[in-house]
């Protein structure tokens, strides 16, 4: 993969009779490229996740950022404030497993229609949870989840009726998980549970912990951004996508 010019556009994807908006970023040059679905945080299709999609596309990847909240609040783009966080958590609680799988399946079909050579998924926080669960149900070749929460408990509808970690055996692709050691949402015990589940099921995986990083360390523009850790994680992500 090398840096290339990109084009971006908003597209509509039909899902079960509804229409889901998705941000598409792809290399400008014609050709067949790997496809990647990007799962957004509770802040929706925020410009930060769109920037991440564009950075991936510049490496030679066709990227889709689906609107996971399209049933409850289409095209939500929430601020990084206490109010935005509360609204985002409310929207997160509207997600269920059947709808999420329908959404990601529709994205896989869209990428395949664009001649994607493979399809993987990258997710951030809540979107990381979506990526992990999708990998247990769908043929994703690679999954990278940044600080995915709620995988080991049943605190949100998406992690019920049993914790998502219990579906780990369904994963068929390569997995890399990124965590901050100072993240109160995903403590050492939860990380150890994930490591054990992935190892016990012989999943090709890696868990990377940045000991001095908080939750959400990868996006620029926030107080909790950690540039060195973010760039290291990004380089590992690139290596994963290169295979």
Helicity, in percent?
Answer: 25-40%
Radius of gyration equals 16 Å
List how many beta strands DSSP finds: 8
Q: Give the biggest beta sheet.
A: 8 strands, mixed
The first-to-last residue Cα distance is 11 Å
- Shape assignment: globular
How does the helix and strand content classify structurally?
A: alpha/beta
Strand content: 15-25%
Order of strands, widest sheet: 1-2-4-3-5-6-7-8
Low-confidence stretches: none
Mean pLDDT: 96
Count of individual helical segments: 6
- H/E element string? EEEHEHHEHEEHEH
Describe this structure in words.
This protein is α/β, with parallel strands linked by helices. Helix content is 33%, strand content 22%. It contains 6 helices and 8 strands. Helix 5 links the parallel strand 7 and strand 8 (205-210). It is globular.
In short:
It is built from six helices and eight strands, in the order E-E-E-H-E-H-H-E-H-E-E-H-E-H.
Question: Any chance you could write out the topology, listing elements then pairs?
Answer:
Elements: E1 6-15, E2 18-27, E3 35-39, H1 47-57, E4 62-66, H2 82-92, H3 97-113, E5 119-124, H4 126-137, E6 142-146, E7 174-180, H5 188-200, E8 205-210, H6 227-242
């Amino acid at each position: 993969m090398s840096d290339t010019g990109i084009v971006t556009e908003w597209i509509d994807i039909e899902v079960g009779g509804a229409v889901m908006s998705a941000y598409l970023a792809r290399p400008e040059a014609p050709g067949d490229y790997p496809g990647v679905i990007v799962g957004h945080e509770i802040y929706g299709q925020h410009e930060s996740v769109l920037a991440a999609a564009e950075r991936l596309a510049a490496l030679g990847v066709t990227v889709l950022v689906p609107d996971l909240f399209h049933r409850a609040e289409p095209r939500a783009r929430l601020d990084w404030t206490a109010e935005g966080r509360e609204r985002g958590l409310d929207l997160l609680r509207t997600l269920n497993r059947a709808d999420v799988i329908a959404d990601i399946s529709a994205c896989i079909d869209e990428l395949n229609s664009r001649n994607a050579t493979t399809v993987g998924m990258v997710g951030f926080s809540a979107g990381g949870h979506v990526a992990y669960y999708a990998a247990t149900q769908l043929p994703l070749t690679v999954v990278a989840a940044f600080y995915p929460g709620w995988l080991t408990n049943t605190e949100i509808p998406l992690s019920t009726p049993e914790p998502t970690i219990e579906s780990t055996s369904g994963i068929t692709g390569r997995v890399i998980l990124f965590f901050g050691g100072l993240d109160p949402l995903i403590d050492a015990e939860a990380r150890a549970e994930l490591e054990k589940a992935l190892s016990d099921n012989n999943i090709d995986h890696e868990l990377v912990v940045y000991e001095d990083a908080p939750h959400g360390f990868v996006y620029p523009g926030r107080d909790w951004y950690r540039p060195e850790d973010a760039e290291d994680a990004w380089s590992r992500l690139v290596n994963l996508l290169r295979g």
